[in-house]
Amino acid sequence: xxxxxxxxxxxxxxxxxxxxxxxxxxxxxxxxxxxxxxxxxxxxxxxxxxxxxxxxxxxxxxxxxxxxxxxxxxxxxxxxxxxxxxxxxxxxxxxxxxxxxxxxxxxxxxxxxxxxxxxxxxxxxxxxxxxxxxxxxxxxxxxxxxxxxxxxxxxxxxxxxxxxxxxxxxxxxxxxxxxxxxxxxxxxxxxxxxxxxxxxxxxxxxxxxxxxxxxxxxxxxxxxxxxxxxxxxxxxxxxxxxxxxxxxxxxxxxxxxxxxxxxxxxxxxxxxxxxxxxxxxxxxxxxxxxxxxxxxxxxxxxxxxxxxxxxxxxxxxxxxxxxxxxxxxxxxxxxxxxxxxxxxxxxxxxxxxxxxxxxxxxxx
Length: 364
Ligand SMILES: Nc1ncnc2c1ncn2[C@@H]1O[C@H](COP(=O)(O)OP(=O)(O)OP(=O)(O)O)[C@@H](O)[C@H]1O
Description:
Domain ABC transporter: 5-242
CATH class of the largest domain: Alpha Beta
Order of helices and strands: EEEHEEEEHHHEHEHEEHHEEEEEEEEEEE
Number of helices: 8
Pfam family, one: TOBE_2
Strand order of the largest sheet: 7-8-9-3-10-11
Radius of gyration: 25 Å
Structural class: alpha+beta
CATH superfamily of the largest domain: P-loop containing nucleotide triphosphate hydrolases
Shape: elongated
Mean pLDDT: 91
InterPro entries: AAA+_ATPase, ABC_SmlMolc_Importer, ABC_transporter-like_ATP-bd, ABC_transporter-like_CS, Mo/tungstate-bd_C_term_dom, P-loop_NTPase, Transp-assoc_OB_typ2
Protein name: ABC transporter ATP-binding protein
Number of strands: 22
Largest sheet: 6 strands, mixed
Number of domains: 2
Helix content: 10-25%
Low-confidence stretches: none
Strand content: 35-45%
Bound molecules: adenosine-5'-triphosphate
CATH architecture of the largest domain: 3-Layer(aba) Sandwich
GO molecular function: ATP binding
């Protein structure tokens, strides 16, 4: 077993402010885990504690069962066998690609003195990240994406058991960022290296991860696999942060057999789930709503509301609608439709969705 991480009740305070507040995460060996959340939620501080740069005030971090961080005991970063890549391309401008990648083997804990072996391993790492033939170039002759690959090769060269990535794609342009994502994930899968990835891009977190940890104000709000987080979030915060969501408020009037009815300003709606103690919202995703012409009945939908299309936005494979609903004053529903069926602005419609797709969520 190599690279399994257990984070238990981890807390880091700056003065009286808890940047990381009682965080517990279990990461199995070989998994790709994203720490996701708005700016300032404590993602980077958690990663820095994992790396050994920041000592915790409470709790502990263990790797493969051995504690590497706890108050009063922090194993040095260089002894942790972790590779790191950061947002800024931390490659040395005065060194060639080869020398950048070779650095950890020349000066690190895992020094390699045999010249032939050094060359073989450096060339191997450079090939791994798709930079074969670029060994003699200096970083300023490379694109941003290529520089990030150099940083990645350097992080991997010492064969770490864990890879820590702090927004490594965020300085790349959109197109490159999109292709690098898939490369990063396929490389991680091939190597089977446990990876912790900090991002505020929900799209990246969903695409890449075995598990996503959603944080806010230093706390973990939810952690789960991407599909469960998207389809069945527990909280309104996660539903809103991951993907698009429409919410309804109101008192719950009945609960039986996994079905909950909520009296909303738009009428009585039925959803699935269980009502928590801390207040509830009804959530429906834009793609789970079907618009039909007014008067067209759809008995398969438990929920049907009259509405009017206010705005239509064509977005290639989907059409986005802003729909006002009788009884909901300010708020508009976001609905995603699929061509060729099109509604136009001003059209009176019926808004339908099933109770299975509508979820009752805790207010976090
Ligand atoms: N050395 C420090 N001294 C004081 N406060 C700090 C320090 N490091 C981080 N913080 C505070 O802790 C909180 C969490 O910071 P952190 O960098 O972990 O957030 P983040 O989720 O990574 O945010 P971002 O996405 O903006 O990088 C922030 O409010 C930050 O200002």
